[in-house]
Write a structure and sequence with these properties.
about 290 residues; mainly beta; 5-stranded antiparallel beta sheet; globular
């Protein structure tokens, strides 16, 4: 039934109800009580229509035997994806406006496989993490030509490991990643192909970082989860120079398991409640607002 027909039926029922109130029909010996109908206002709604564009598949004639979980999309609708090739190995692709797929990187004598999901900015630059054939790890960026090595764990590097979760990147092509130094501490670091910069590192204010650094795409800061030295877990926002603590565990919240930010500096925080259940919080302008909970 269409919305128009449904509304017409409701209006007819309302009209009948009004007539019965004005001219009640009471059979002999019975008293009839008419239930009043009311039309409650509905929230504004619209029917959504979707257009699906095939990007890649694993059909019989396809060169792909599998599509690895971990795609990226930018504000222009370009998608970066990882595919397993029937010919062997893996490749990272970027979609183009004409439907073509541009090869960003492929397993070869240098790269054994991809272990950090791709991330892409609006210029079409794709960042990703790879296990190398020499047993080391590296983070790269690429646009379909020569790759730029951001950081690695080669013997001459200060980094011992570059663990999950995946790296982030801003519109300028600066990549933000989590790594463990050979000297012991773990931290968030940034680089674009030159010397890397330390954003935050354990050993001072922080004793551990359990997740990635969610850097703004257009901006200088990011949100992250950290264990405060000698204190509770917390969710913070900062650029490495100025840092704001948004919320800490204890009291209402027992722990946190997610933190994402947008370019306006609003942070979405997933938290476990001390009383049980979970809640999604929104931190903005110094105010912490519960958005939805269990």
């Amino acid at each position: 039934m269409s919305f128009t027909n449904w509304l017409r039926n409701i209006r007819s029922a309302l009209a009948r109800g009004q007539m019965e109130r004005n001219h009640p029909r009471r059979p002999p010996g019975r008293t009839r009580t008419t239930r009043r109908l009311c039309l409650e206002p509905l929230e504004d709604r619209m029917l959504l229509s979707y257009t699906f564009t095939p990007i890649a598949d694993t059909s019989l004639g396809s060169p792909y035997s599998g599509l690895v979980v971990g795609q990226a999309i930018n504000d222009h609708g370009q998608v970066a994806l990882v595919a397993v090739l029937k010919s062997g190995g893996q490749a990272i692709y970027r979609t183009e406006d004409d439907g073509r797929l541009t090869t960003i990187a492929q397993t070869d004598g240098l790269i054994r496989n991809f272990y950090l999901s791709p991330y892409m900015n609006d210029s079409g630059t794709v960042s990703f993490g790879a296990n190398l054939t020499d047993g080391r790890q590296a983070v790269f960026t690429g646009r379909g030509e020569a790759l730029t090595r951001i950081a690695d764990t080669e013997p001459s590097s200060p980094f011992a490991t570059i663990p999950l979760p995946a790296q982030r990147m801003d519109q300028d092509g600066v990549v933000y990643f989590r790594a463990t130094l050979r000297s012991g501490p773990t931290g968030f670091f940034a680089g674009d192909g030159g010397p890397t910069r330390t954003v935050y590192v354990t050993g001072g204010q922080f004793s551990a970082f359990p997740s990635s650094y969610a850097h703004q795409v257009n901006g200088d800061g990011g949100s992250f989860r950290a264990k405060l030295t000698g204190g509770p877990d917390g969710v913070l926002f900062g650029d490495g120079l100025q840092t704001d603590t948004l919320v800490t565990a204890g009291g209402t919240y027992s722990s946190f398991f997610g933190a994402e930010c947008n370019d306006d500096g609003t942070v979405a925080i997933s938290a476990n409640l001390a009383a049980g259940g979970q809640v999604l919080l929104v931190a903005s302008d110094g105010t912490l607002t519960p958005f939805v909970d269990t």
